[in-house]
User: Fold this.
Amino acid sequence: MSKLIHRRSFVKGISGVAVAPYLAACGPALEDPLVSPAEAPIGPFGAESTAEEVTEGIALSGMTAVVTGANSGLGFETMRVLALRGAHVIGTGRTLEKAEAACDSVSGNATPAILELTDFDSIAACTDQIRALGRPIDMLICNAGIMALPELEQVNGVEKQFAVNHLGHFLFVNRLLEPVVAAPQGRVVMVSSMGYKFAPPEGIQFDNLSGERDYEPNEAYGQSKLANGLFSLELARRLEPTSATSNSVHPGIIMTNLGRHMEEWKQFAARLIGWTFMKSIPEGAATQCYVAASPALTGVSGLYFVDCNPVIPEPSMHDVQQAARLWEVSEELTDGYLG
Assistant:
């Protein structure tokens, strides 16, 4: 019996134990195999593939990648592996010290940049710095994020998880679209999550983006991850006249500092038995590296990937009308900074 089946069996058997709330915050751990879109290529990789494995033999020399949240966790592993394969990687961190330390510790060409996703001026400055390099962007990987803030926090009147995970990246990507489109086959990869399933039943609560009505940490996180997927979907539609693509991914459940806001007892439970079902960081970074770099996915756009393969998510994740409305509202919320 495979390790994957062992993991699934274990997860199904632990409902009700202490770690369940931790799983709920991150999204469902593993599901039965999902149906893949008919037009999408199915690759040879899966849940236990690593970022190095899925990029083995892929030469990225001469290409430029941008990775947000590159100073730790999945972002760092993604930067490390893409640089290992020859790409020039621009790795962002919330401070120059964190970004420099991360970039200095990888083999290859990595350039640090400061990016604070709660601060539109920081986003503008970071994107100006990147554009000033004069390079096309072959891979733009929106990896940074926060999760399950225990108390309501706001950024410019918007709930913080929505502001960081979606709105900051919406502005960041839009300000870099020109160099993405200028690449031979530029790719935008949005790191979403199966946590989108914990969004409100109606999807994005456009009348409650402040989060002031019945704030619940996991639901707010789910809404932000749903927004990642819907943003990627609408972006793919808008990129159709070009060679550029946009896809979203679920990396899996991994023990990183993303869960630092969880209650301590939940973190302890995850550390204690998480090894039985969680992915390692190299496994967690595999899907975003594969979607960003694989030649097999040239021209593939508007899809959602799990375990390195495209799947059909729940209807909320491909609601084209809500995706279009989200884009319009996001433009209004970032007015004056889109450039």
User: Anything to note?
Assistant: The two ends are 54 Å apart (CA to CA).
